[in-house]
Amino acid sequence: MNVIRKADIGDAIFFTENMREEDRIENKKIRKFTGSDSSEYDSLLSGIQNGECFVGEHNGVPVFIYGAVPQSDNYSAIGWNICTPGISECKLFVYETAHEYNNDLKKRFGLIMNLIHKKNKVAWRLAQKLGAKFELIKDDVYLFHIEGER
């Protein structure tokens, strides 16, 4: 059974401890690139506290966390997600949820964006399927952006 629920602070701990290695590498690479000294936990907690954040559960187990943080320009949002290895058991659920959420964000914002690491193949393919365009920033770090309807 698949369920979507609002994320809470405990989810920051769970996903910090259980994220896919590709997400961990991406998170570390992007924090280094941006000069952030925050931990993985702090990054997740910030996403939960400063925006909207949801968890996808498959058979009672959290497998992905996702959300968006509206920016001060009231036009753009930082969209993000972190997954556990459990997504391999429910790829369609992940895609359908991402597609639905992306469509919702596109109605509310003119631009959805974030940084992405080229070697995070699952995240890269999902962003492509959602219509993202990519701009190389440095090394393997890209800016992805999805045009909204606003």
Could you give a quick summary of the protein structure above?
The chain has 150 residues and is of the alpha+beta class.
Description:
- This protein is of the alpha+beta class.
- The chain has one domain (2-147): 3-Layer(aba) Sandwich (Aminopeptidase).
- It contains 5 helices and 7 strands; from the N terminus they run βαααβββαβαββ.
- The protein has helices spanning 9-18, 21-34, 40-50, 91-108, 121-129, and strands at 2-6, 52-58, 61-70, 76-83, 111-117, 133-138, 141-147.
- It has a 7-stranded mixed beta sheet with strand order 1-2-3-4-5-7-6, with helices on both faces.
- A hairpin with a 5-residue loop joins strand 3 (61-70) and strand 4.
- Helix 1 runs antiparallel to helix 3 (40-50).
- The longest helix is centred in the middle third of the chain and has 18 residues, at 91-108.
- The radius of gyration is 14 Å and the shape is globular.
- The mean pLDDT is 94.
